[in-house]
Every structure is written in structure tokens, then in C-alpha cells.
Amino acid sequence: MISPGLIFFLSFLCHVTIAGRTCPKPNDLPFAKVVPLKTSYEPGEEILYSCLPGYVSRGGMRRFTCPLSGFWPINTLKCIPRVCPFAGILENGAVRYTTFEYPNTISFSCKTGFYLDGADSAKCTEEGKWSPDLPVCAPITCPPPSIPKFAELSVYKPLAGNNTLYGDNAVLKCLPQYAMFGNDTITCTAHGNWTELPECREVKCPFPSRPDNGFVNYPAKEVLYYKDKATYGCHDTFVLDGPEEVECNKFGLWSAQPSCKASCKVSVKKATVLYEGERVKFQEKFKNGMLHGQKVSFFCKNKEKKCSYTEEAQCLDGTFEIPKCFKEHSSLAFWKTDASDVKPCEADAQIQK
Ligand SMILES: *[C@@H]1O[C@H](CO)[C@@H](O)[C@H](O)[C@H]1NC(C)=O
Ligand SMILES: *[C@@H]1O[C@H](CO)[C@@H](O)[C@H](O)[C@H]1NC(C)=O
Ligand SMILES: *[C@@H]1O[C@H](CO)[C@@H](O)[C@H](O)[C@H]1NC(C)=O
Asked: Which residue, of 148, 311, 329, 336, is most buried by count of CB atoms within 10 Å of its CB?
């Protein structure tokens, strides 16, 4: 008797030896695909490993046949990324990258004064090429500046081709009679344009008015403009308060309005005073009066302390006030000591010496 178990065993053995075992789903390989991909293969079935786009194969076989043993042979195939051409240097700029392999992206920047002519990043493609093309750093330039009305360039040194490099300056000036509002110096900016242009405006000044007791001279023209000048003077005994020459400024005003100030008549008959640090006889020095602005110091007595001090007085437009403390002695009172001969009180000691 043959047992049914034995029959089953024999038929199984027969099946294995004739039909062999099936192969399982092949191992995954990084960046590769398998064709055809199934969960099991009959012995004799072929599979093909190929690298995914952007990767290239290295080493090992690509084609395998499912053997009777049902075990796929050891696969030594490797798929490695394609490498794009070296792009680590950008003249006048910098490249940021980790590697130049697919599918990495690298990025670019330019140093100050240069701009990216092209894209700011590029990707290593499946074909191992940069896309888009690598950029260059081109120098930033400004076109010739537009000249404001009533202005001209006074300093301008463009490159060949009439452009100016980033950071360079040009200087503008206004035509005569026009005043500048804004900065005369313009700079080529990183945007490739110039900093704000100044404005030139026509500026007129009114005719200057004649000062009382004096005169003013100015150009014999119908209109007085920016930078025109006028000169002032005063009649005898009058003194000019202000500059002799004034100029029409850019706000349409004269730089100053001088006037003529009267001199002072003086009634003191006898006094020793300090004038510009010197002791002088007042009645002699100022016998023709004092001019506006002149100052003298009178000596006064401090009766309690028996010393002298000084007090200042100034001629201001015809008015001169003698200090109240000053006592004029009659020339007959010869026994009286004049304040200027009394020893100075301490605070004044320096001045009198
Ligand atoms: C530069 O400017 C000059 C004068 O305006 C002009 O004659 C010349 O053609 C310009 N050159 C270029 C390259 O544009
Ligand atoms: C005028 O512009 C120049 C450069 O453009 C700058 O250096 C200067 O300080 C400016 N002057 C004034 C008064 O703003
Ligand atoms: C220069 O160009 C920049 C950017 O376009 C702009 O913001 C700026 O106002 C321009 N400057 C002048 C003075 O026009």
C-alpha cells in the first residue's frame, strides 16, 4: 500500500524539481526602478533594473533572471545622481551650494556694485545641465543724468559708452542768476539711477532801499537776481551798522539790511576814561563826538571803600548816557582827587593797573 501522504510528497517534489520555485518581489534599489514589477516571478522570468531619470548606474548587472532556486542573485547595481558642471565660482559674486548633483539647486548673489544678469538660482537637471543658464554679475551703471532746467553739469566723468559706475558722483551747477535747491552732488545708486536731482530756480531780489543818512549802490539793471550785490555807505558822522556789501540770497532776500547810525555829541568837559584798554582824555579823544558803537569806561568812586571802579558807556545811534556814578569836577576844584587817580577797587584792579 502506498500511503496518500507519500504520493502528495512525491508530487510536490516532482513539481519543485520540474517547475522550480517562484522568485519574490525584487529588492528596492535606491533611485532605480524594476521592470516588470510584480510580487512573484516564475523561474526563468526576467527583470530589468534601470536608474531613475537624473541618476546613472554604476557597477553590477542590470538584467536578472529568476533562477530555479527562487532567490534573486545579489544585486550590486548602484544608481548615483548625475553631476552638473562645476559652478562654484561667480566672478564679482558668490554661489551658495551644497553639491552640484541632481536635483540640487544652487543660488547666486553679486557683490555691491554689481547686479545679477540672469536668474538668482539654477537647478541641476536630469540631463546634468544647469537650468536656467548660469548668470553673470554685471557692473551697475547709470545712464547719463538728466539735466534739470537751468542747470549744467560741472563735474561728470562717464565711462566709455557714456554710462557711470555705481557709487560715482556728478556735480551740477545752476546757470547764473539761478539758485540751487537740493544737493549739487548726485550719486549713481544701486538701482542704476541717480540720487535726487537738485532744482535751479530763478531768484529775484527787490531793489535795496537807501538807508537814512546813507546810500546804497547796486547794478544798474532792471531786475536784481540771485548773487547780485549791493554796497552801502553812510554820510559824514554816521556809521554803517552792518556789512558794507550785501548779496541777494536764494530766498530772494538781501543777506543783510545795513543802516546808518548817528554819532553822539558829548558834553563832558574833563574826564579820564578807558578806551580800548588805554587811559585817554575823553574831551580830547572825542572832541568831534563819538561814533555809533564806540565804548568807553568812566571811573567812579566808591566813597565807603575809598577806591575806584569803572562803568561802561556806549554811543548808540546818537544817544550816549554818561554813567550816573561819574562826577565831573570843575577845573577849579583842584583839591579834589579825580576818581581815575584813586586806587582801584579789587574787581577793577586788572583793568586799571
Ligand atoms: C556719448 O555721448 C556723446 C555726446 O553726447 C555722443 O556723441 C556719443 O555718441 C555717446 N556715445 C555712446 C556710446 O552713446
Ligand atoms: C550731497 O550728496 C552727497 C553724495 O551724494 C553727500 O555725500 C552729501 O552729504 C550731500 N550733501 C548734503 C548737504 O546733503
Ligand atoms: C531709483 O530707483 C528706485 C527703484 O526703482 C526708486 O525706488 C527710486 O525712487 C529711484 N530714485 C530716484 C531718485 O528716482
From this structure: 148
- Is there an atom of ligand 3 within 6 Å of 190 CB? no
Please report the atom of ligand 2 found closest to the CA of residue 187. 5
| Mean per-residue pLDDT, 107-117 | 95
CATH architecture of 23-81: Ribbon (2.10)
pLDDT category, 353, cuts 50, 70, 90? very low
Assign 267 a pLDDT band (cuts: 50, 70, 90). confident
- How far is ligand 1, taken at its centre, from the CA of residue 237, in Å? 64
The answer, yes or no, to whether residue 14 has pLDDT greater than 50, is no
Question: How much distance in Å is there from the Cα of 95 to the middle of ligand 3?
Answer: 28
Q: What is the mean pLDDT of residues 109-123?
A: 96
204-262 shares the fold of 23-81: yes
Can you list the pairs that 204-209 forms with residues at least 24 positions away whose Cβ atoms lie under 8 Å? 204/248, 204/252, 205/248, 205/249, 205/252, 205/253, 205/254, 206/252, 208/246, 208/254, 208/257
d(CA 200, CA 144): 19
Question: Class assignment of domain 93-139?
Answer: mainly beta
The grid coordinates of residue 324 equal 550816573
